[in-house]
Amino acid sequence: MGQTNSMTNFSRRIALYTDRNKRSNENILGFGDGNDLKRVITVNAPQQVKYISNRISTSKYSFLTFLPKFLFEQFRKYSNIFFLCIAILQQIPGVSPTGRYTTAVPLLMILCCAAIKEIIEDFKRHIQDGAVNNRRVLIYRYGNWLYSKWMNVRVGDIIKVADKEFFPADLIVLSSSEPHSICYIHTSNLDGETNLKVRQGLPQTSHIISSLQLKALQGTIECELPNRHLYDFAGTLKLANVAHPIPLGSDQILLRGSQLKNTGWVYGLVIYTGKETKLMMNSSSVPFKRTNVEQIANNQILLLLFLLLILCLFSTIAGEIWNYKNRVAHWYLGLTRMPDSSSAAVPNHVGYTFLTFFILFNNLIPISLQITVDLVKFIQAYFINWDKDMYDEESDIPANARTSNLNEELGQVKYIFSDKTGTLTKNVMVFKQCSIAGIMYGSGNIEKFNHFQLMQNLTNHESGGEIREFLTLLATCHTVVPEKKTDLLVDVTYQASSPDESALVAALKEMNVIFFRRTPDNVAISFMGEEEIYEILNVLEFSSDRKRMSVVVRCPDGQIKLFCKGADSVILQLLSSDDPNSGITSQHLESFAKDGLRTLCVASRVILSDEYNSWIEIYRQAATAINNRAELVAEAAEKIEKNLHLLGATGIEDKLQDQVPESISMLHKAGIKIWVLTGDKKETAVNIGYSCKLLSDQLLNLTLDEDSLEDTRRQLQDHCSSFGESLRKDNLASLVIEGKTLKFALAPPCRQDFLDLAISCKSVICCRVSPKQKAEVVELVKRSTDAITLAIGDGANDVGMIQTAHVGVGIMGREGVQAACASDYSIGQFRFLTKLLFVHGVWSYRRLCKVLLYSFYKNICLYVMELWFAVHNGFSGQILFERWTIATYNVLFTAAPPMALGLLDRCCSAETMMRFPALYKMSQNKSDFNIKIFWTWCLNAVYHSIILYFMSYAMLRHGNMAYTAGLESDAWTLLTHISIWGSIASWFLFLIIYSNFWPTIPLAPEMRGMAKYVFSSMYFWFGLILIPFTALMADVIYNCLQRTLYKTLMQEVQEKELANQDPYDLVMARQTSTVSRVAERLALLKSVFVRTRTPKMSGIVAGPYHGFAFSQEEDGVVPQNQLIRNYDTNIVKPPGL
Question: pLDDT category, 1109, cuts 50, 70, 90?
């Protein structure tokens, strides 16, 4: 979009591909290394090159590409190719016994209907794209500020983004409302991480806080060409008033899809737009997905085509033999050609005879199949859209089927790949419980922390001193920055890179312990209305290795104290040997962990002045070391973080979306395995795993956290061998794997072992996963198993896996609409997935299977009768039925029954399907449509054709297809009755009207008076009852025997429903044996893993995992110590006008 056709732009695009291929070590183009290629952007001046626009599109088609793409997609279906060939062959004079247009016209109508359906569905995508493209942003252009649409943003523009707004393009940060051009961004839309990240503008541009200063900004930016590397960027800024180029890196880039948080505003200069943004370059084009049912049907159509060729060959040979034997006896047929025969006569050649039979039998493959299936799916999609139970009132978002082509796949899902942040969770942290001096406060069962008892004990209990110390520590040991919008302390708001720390200080505010001011040297809190100032002497930063954060403070009374908070596994090791609170606090931590809370231990100690003075020298030497600085600083911190006194622990809830644990439990009962693929750290992911019941103490919990390919391979092989015969079976086991280990596990030497181990587990959690790895994991399972996969997410980092999976589901309204725009179905919350699968998925699958089977059945039944008729007409290629009567067979006489089956039939009620997820396993196992069932229906059609033809041969009447549709229907509604009996009645009405066409309408003279002749025949009325009854007798007997001796669970539940009885005991009895077998395997596996466990082995997680509450950015552009010392909340922030 927006590209020019000039040679300049063409060269730039080739350069882009060269750079991308070079950086990914894929030398596809093979010319030049592109080292001298770069993008040059002028600041506050017109660009020398026309770059692409900022308009994005996730739709399948455009005005120009619709016809070629649509035709390509339609003629990937073998049936359409087949009928196109038939339509062409019918144009050969004297060959077609059914006329020239009896195939071409229906085929054209079918393609037109399919085109209308595709246009309607793609139009919805264009509307959603338009909602994104038409968002508004403030642009500084030609010396003025103007509000414009996102799609009008151009490379080189300077834009202003306000707090909580998304970035419309990839930007270089120039300045912000915060000190030193710092800004906070939320990148969970890109990488799934919950913590805020810090970006910082260059010192040379940080002074720009007004339009006048922007106008004076002159220079150029030279940067790398657009590429998909999210975490890499290289460029230089050349300013007119600065002598040397200024380096630019990933610390200065703000990516499209990220959101500005806790920052008043930011000025950014646009460097990449539209399809060239890193977000869009990590997205792929909308794939054309084909369902499992469609693939099976396509393959069977090929076999039917092969049988059709054999049938035509047999009929041709039989016809030639009959002609040879009867050329004298039946001389009047002209079977013997005289030398002077007219050249204009109809050809009598074996090739023409073969084509005649090929056209005669072509409808063994139903021409109306595709349009019937498409129409059924299209209306089924509206059933999903209209379902009030899947409407999210909170966000005002209904369910939306963005495509109707995959409805039946929803009923066969075996693996669900889910994002965490925004999909399972709300990314809202809430302080729920705490333990202070061995006393637990709060409850995990209430929505908000109840601090009444804590406040009472603060003044009236012997632990009051420790409570005060506990609250003071939480109010001072953090990196939060307060923001006062008024002079009232209650109006203080907080900005923090860690949502956990934000939750803690917000909870303290409710307890009247208010952190309200930060300066480079101290923090001020209001403790029960009294102002207290604590001098920050040192900040010992958090890291994933240390798993703790400490501050050394000078208290108002002059004492020096160390305040420390972190993971219990670390803090408990730093306590003094006789700490009185460690035992009871450990028990409380167990309770917090079982509730799925993120825990922190809180400890402190008093530091004497002499000790501090000695230690500070060691710390300064470490902090200024040239080599191994990080290790030396960590060692120095350990020298003072010792002999701590445990004050207590906190429990923070990462709030789940509504009914997530219940939904996951239902999905597990349905035999669906759930994999969580998240960019977040392991501790956070595992905590959520316990919260939403993906992980539990009743499972064999395995972890993989290796640092090399060889270690990963060894560990995988050990685990696989320990599973023994239970490998690749359903086991009560879970697997947690780190991102770096996953990289090795997906390598060719480990891939199969990883797959075997993972599919042996009930739940899998992959942490620190990149968007590309998410897609690779889904692709691995999709290609290596004969199972249907579903991916669900809400962020742009989920687009890859959503498009890779068989079915992609997007959640609207959490982290933008990128995932929803790329998805096949969108819903408001994760909990709606259960009804989407258990009700709409199963109903759509079973209905569509019946439509497909019935469509093939009715055509085979009818057109095989042409073969029996050929036996009586000397294989002459004559038709048994009048040509336009047979042309309307699929359109009129048998059109309603498949629609009734596809739209109205249902196996069980929605309430029953939701109550008993085990019923889902029947459709999941593809029991309603497979090769065996397909050919059983075909053979039944041949059997019925024999009965129909040879009995009708004497009684002048045929037809039982509508009766068969009624026999297969599970739910008879008023519309079902109308469609079944109406189809039969339509034949009578048609015959009455059609037999009176000629001579008023010059059509079908042979049908003149046929209705009177037929309706006056007693044989007709006798056959109307006897023939269908005889043909269907075998079907009735089979169904009776099957439902009596070999009932399926679904059929038993149906009978219970009809009898108004509760099927609970029935379903539970069917599940007991399966559950007991899985439990026996679990006991055996645990004993094997315990015997073979080694100290190195990441084999078993013994108890509840204590995930600590620290979503803090590590190794950020601004160190935590420097970050908090940059702020002085006494200074008024600039408005940026």
Answer: low
